[in-house]
Amino acid sequence: MNTKVLFAVMLIAVFTMGYYADNTVAFAQYMGNVGSQGETGKYTLEEALELQRRRIESAEANPGAGSGTPVLSADGVFGAAAISAAVFGGTAGALFLRSRQGKYAAMGRG
To answer: What is the pTM of this model?
Structure first.
């Protein structure tokens, strides 16, 4: 493909994405139904802060409970890492062993 045509198409794509990007604004920490005067419904900022304060107090009162994230179980951090390592390691090992044989393997090696 012609380089100038490719560059022009990419430039048009970048400007088009930039033009439509303002229509897809993300509102972080959305807290309920927003009315015409800006009210946020039942879940106000003060209620959110109170809820977070209670969560912190509950975590400080029960230090043995942890954060609630299962780190050592199969659906936790290390469990997922071990399962991924076993799957991808097994696949890589099988491909490595298969690569040492066959009609395209270098003669005299292995």
So the answer is: 0.34
